[in-house]
Design a protein that fits this description.
Length: 314
């Protein structure tokens, strides 16, 4: 009998060890797969990469949860009133709750960044240092992101176990551009003979197509690549030909709209943003940002200011 108990104990210990190893491997795979995306979002939205990764690991069981597999939902975000996208139903705090569904993990990471940066509840987080992962983890719990009373502690444990805070100090790796016919320079008729032809990816926001500026880009170069009159491109982006482009600037290929898309009602201003850059983020007319907030043209936004980017939905 004693021998049987010893054997059963050894089996139990061995199974626990294998399960622990399996969980660690899954987490390492998740980190390796999404670390660059997390670093990119830290650069763009000022949310620590370590927090993004730890939340993704915790919310999805390192990418193995049903929400992650079937809905690409990596952060457990529920539908909320403003959500107009795809949805799935899953039992969490209550039976059959509505959760957001995405086309890709990248879309989930983007929605998570917008979810945190555009809600009043989380304003206090963006006053913290990007290297203060403990402040962010505990702050998420205090702000009500999750109902688990140990949520902050669990995030910190994951971050420290896998040294995720190291990613908070890294530079974002640029996304590789994808070829698109619209950007082929006409053969044998180059207007810019000394320029290396760059391949670009077309993005979309608010139903409008745009690209991001490459190093040494100008509006004239982009207009020529897109077979578009320079005057028209400048009008789409509400700028004059004297304005210089910075790498990563959004350049719209269509007219901007009067307001942001339905899922965006407010914007919480971050350091370095201007009224113009905010209008570009949402693909909306600059004058609309001023009008919605009853502000004059000389207003300069300050970090923490809350701006309306859409008329309140009825």
């Amino acid at each position: 009998m004693r021998s049987i108990l010893i054997i059963l104990t050894l089996i139990t210990v061995n199974v626990a060890f294998i399960q622990g190893q399996s969980q660690a491997n899954l987490r390492l795979e998740y980190i390796n797969k999404y670390k660059n995306l997390a670093i990119y979002h830290q650069k763009e939205y000022k949310i620590p990469a370590s927090i993004k990764l730890a939340q993704g690991i915790l919310e999805t069981a390192a990418g193995t949860s049903r929400l992650a597999r079937e809905a690409n939902n990596h952060f457990g975000i529920k539908c909320k009133e403003e959500w107009r996208g795809a949805r799935v139903y899953h039992t969490d705090d209550a039976p059959n709750e509505c959760f957001r569904a995405y086309k890709s993990a990248e879309d989930s990471y983007l929605d998570h960044s917008l979810f945190l940066s555009q809600r009043i509840y989380y304003v206090s987080l963006f006053k913290l240092d990007l290297l203060d992962y403990k402040g962010w983890a505990n702050g998420l719990q205090k702000c009500g992101y999750a109902t688990d009373p140990n949520y902050g502690r669990k995030l910190i444990q994951i971050i420290e176990q896998y040294d995720l805070h190291a990613y908070d100090k890294m530079t974002a790796i640029e996304r590789r551009p994808v070829y698109d016919d619209i950007y082929n320079v006409k053969p044998n008729q180059p207007r810019f003979p000394d320029r290396i032809v760059l391949k670009r990816r077309i993005y979309e926001t608010n139903g409008i197509f745009y690209i991001t500026a490459q190093p040494d880009d100008t509006y004239a170069i982009i207009a020529d690549d897109a077979r578009m009159r320079l005057k028209r491109l400048l009008k789409f982006n509400e700028v004059t030909k004297e304005r210089q482009l910075m790498t990563g600037d959004i350049v719209f290929l269509q007219n901007k709209k009067k307001q942001a898309s339905r899922e965006h009602l407010i914007h919480i201003v971050r350091a370095g943003e201007s009224m113009y850059s905010i209008s570009q983020i949402y693909g909306m007319k600059l004058k609309s940002v001023y009008q919605f907030n009853k502000l004059k043209g000389d207003y300069v936004p300050k970090p923490g200011d809350i701006l309306k980017v859409r008329k309140k939905m009825k």
